[in-house]
Amino acid sequence: MTTTLYRRGRIRSAAHPSATAMLVDGERIAWIGAEEDAPRAERVVDLDGGWLAPAFVDAHVHATSTGLALSGLDLSGATSLDDVLGRVRRTAAALPAGAVVLGTGWDETRWPEGRPPTARELSNASGHRPVYLSRVDVHSAVVSEELLARAAVPHDDGLVRQDAHHQLRKLAFESVTPAQREVAQRATLDRAASLGIAAVHECGGPEIAGEEDFRALLSLDGPRPEVVGYWAELGAVEKARELGARGAAGDLFADGSIGSRTAALNSPYADDDPHFSHSGEPYLTEQEVADHVIACTRANLQAGFHCIGDAAIHRVVAGFTAAAELLGDDALRQARHRLEHVELVGKREIAVLARLGVVASVQPAFDAAWGGRHGMYAERLGAWRAGKLNPFAEMAQAGVELAFGSDAPVTPLDPWGAVGAAVQHRTGHHAIALEQAFTAHTVGGWRAAGDDASGVLAAASPATFAVWDGEYGVDTPAPTCRLTVLRGEPIFRSGDA
C-alpha cells in the first residue's frame, strides 16, 4: 500500500487540535501530528495552508432526479408562471420527437400568480408533448394533457397528488433511457464529490424511481462518493436485501409534504385554499409501522419512514413503541432505525426517539427556504405551528442522533449551506452550534448508516476527508473544496489540487 503525507495545513482533529500534517497508509489514517515529527512517506501532498477535515455525508438524496435537474429543466429559479412556461417551451423545442419533458423544482408560493400551470397551458407550451413537472417538495406535480391521457387518475386541472402523482411519475420516468439515467446519476455524484461530500444516502423505492434505477446507481463504477442505498417498501425485508440496500427505509411515506398540503396534521391547514381545508391523511397505520419495524429488527436491517406532520409522526412513533414492547428497547437501539424529515415533532415523540436510538435524518435547508414568520410554512400552518418545525436543538439535547442531508433535488447539494442553516435557524431557539452542525453532516451521516468508525480524523480511522480553501465559519463565504478523498482514494480534485 502507498503511504501519503499531507503536510503544511490545518488538520481538524479533536485528538490533535494543533496538527499540521497527516499520514495516510492505504485506506486508513496512520498518523496525525506536527509536520516536523512526520514519518517518511512514499508520496507528499503540500496543503499550502489549506485545512483538512472529515468529508461530508449527504444523508438523503435522489440521484437520478438531481442529475436530471442539474443537466435539464430545473425550475427552482423560476420567477413566475410565464417564466415556467417559457422554460418548458425552450426545453421541448430541443428534445427529439416523442420525448417527455421532465422538470422539477417549481414553487408557486414565490410567483406573483400564486398558482402552478394548468394541463392545457403545459400542452400548449410544449407543442403537445407529455410533460411532468414535480413541485419543489416532489410530493405533487403538474402534467400536460398528453400525460394525463396515459392514465385515468384524479387531478385538479393537471395538478396531481398522492397515488395519482406516483402513477404519473412512474410513467414519466419510464421515458428515461439507461444512458440518460447513467449520465444523470454520474452528474449528481460528481457534483457531490466537488462539494466535499464523500458519501450519499440514496432514498429509492417503487414509488420514486424503481428497482432498475436503484440497481444501476449502486453498481456504478469509477471514483465516486459511496452510495448507501435505502429501499422504501413496506415489509420488503428480502427485497431490500436482494437489492443491496442498507435498510427498508428512507422515503417510505407515512405522509406527504407541507408545501403540497399532504403532510398529515393533528389540526387543519391554516391557509385559505378552499380545496385544502383539511388536515392531510396519514398513509400508514400504527400497526403497519410496528409490523415493519419488527420485521426489519429481526432481520438486522434498518427500518425507517418519511414523516413530516405531527399526526404522521405520532403514528410512526406509536408503531416504534409497539415494536419495542414486543422486542425490547435494546433490540431497536442496536438496529439503529431512522426517520426522514421529522419536522413537526413534539417533546413526547422526541423522548421516545432518543430512548430507542432512532436517528433523525433532517434537512436544515428546508427551514432556510420555507421557515420564518412569513415563509411558506407559516402560510400553510400559521406562524405558531411553523415555529415548532425542525427543533434541532431540542432533539440534540434529548440525545437524538442528527444526520444532515439535502433531499436533493428538493434543495440543492450544499453541505456548507446546510450547516449554516442549522446554526442560523429562523426560529432561534431551534438553532445548534457550529460544531454540532458540522458533526451532524459528517459523523451523523455515517452513524445513520451504521458506520461508527468514519467521520473523524484519528489514527486507524478510514482516510475519508476533504481539503478546503477558505475559513471554517458561518459568517464567511463557504470554503472551496480542493480535494475529496474516500478511504484513501481521491474522488475529486480541483484544477489547483
Write the layout of secondary structure elements.
Layout: E1 3-7, E2 10-11, E3 21-25, E4 28-33, E5 43-46, E6 51-54, E7 56-61, H1 63-71, E8 73-74, H2 81-93, E9 101-106, H3 119-126, E10 131-135, E11 140-143, H4 145-148, E12 159-161, H5 162-173, H6 178-194, E13 197-204, H7 211-218, E14 226-231, H8 237-243, E15 247-248, H9 286-298, E16 302-307, H10 310-327, H11 329-335, E17 338-341, H12 347-356, E18 359-362, H13 364-370, H14 376-381, H15 383-386, H16 392-398, E19 402-404, H17 415-423, H18 434-440, H19 443-448, E20 465-469, E21 480-486, E22 489-493
Parallel strand pairs: 1-5, 2-6, 7-13, 8-9, 9-10, 13-14, 15-16, 16-17, 17-18, 18-19
Antiparallel strand pairs: 1-3, 3-4, 6-20, 10-11, 11-12, 20-21, 21-22
Descriptive account of the structure:
The chain is α/β, with parallel strands linked by helices and 497 residues long. Helix content is 35%, strand content 21%. It has 19 helices and 22 strands. The strands form 5 sheets. Strands 2-6-20-21-22 form a 5-stranded mixed beta sheet, with helices on one face. Strand 15, helix 9 (286-298) and strand 16 (302-307) form a beta-alpha-beta unit. The chain starts with a strand and ends with a strand. The model has no long low-confidence stretch (mean pLDDT 94).
